[in-house]
Amino acid sequence: MASNVNPTVRRRRLGQELRRLRELKGMTAEEVAERLLVSQSKISRLENGRRSISQRDVRDLCGVYEVEDQRIVDSLMQMAKDSRQQGWWHAFGDIPYSVYIGLETDAESLRVYEPQIITGLLQTRAYAEAIIRGGSPEASEADNDKRVEVRLRRQGRITAESEPLRLWVVLDEASLHRIVGSRPVMREQLEHLVEMSQLPHITVQVLPVEVGAHAGINGQYSILEFADAADSSVVYIEGVTSDLYLEKPLDVQKYTVMYEHLRAQSLNVDQSRQLIERVAKEYAR
């Protein structure tokens, strides 16, 4: 097992396997919790990969599920060990959306709808600094600086020379006109957006305000997809105090259909780039 295995993704795969073993045994999460004298929520968090899992947890669960093949037990134990490794983002301390970063780090493609701001992976440093400080006015300067560095580090996924993240972004036109930082910051940001949109693995579309009510009217969301068939797609919805991760096929399908509607209602790639360039020039006046 490679030492740089993504711990977030490893937890997801381990949780999926433990859920499969429980279902094969015909047991509910509540029944398993009663057998192990733990809460049902702990079993649920272990299965959805939102909680670190120890080798002891795996051993106890395999005992409940009566797994007789020691090779399976050993494999799951190794996965538990790998899942407790630290990703690069842990060096920055307590990051509230660390689960998302782990998923993004391993994703093959990402589709994003942003109604308010330029999406994080395409932000300049100056824009990111203004967004983070404006959105977290009570945070310390050190904490905000840390979040800026994490955001810029994440952008390595789209600038990598080998297998960069495929990124598709639909931006509400309002995000182009909201002055974040200053007019020079906005000009630099939009010029950067145009430059990045010309990369073959990055697509940027703008949803014009004339559209009115649309499929994304309820707010921002992202859809992450993975190369490994064992990893199901995830819909991520960012919140102020907590985030939401949707993995059920019907949920993912609904958001995927919504995204297709957004793409259809948006300007095409060339029209979007022309609009961004035009607004960028307005900031130079």
From TrEMBL:
It comes from the Bacteria. Residues 18-72 form the HTH cro/C1-type domain. It comes from Streptomyces violaceochromogenes. InterPro entries: Cro/C1-type_HTH (IPR001387), DUF5753 (IPR043917), Lambda_DNA-bd_dom_sf (IPR010982). Coiled coil: none annotated. Pfam families: DUF5753, HTH_31. This is Helix-turn-helix transcriptional regulator.
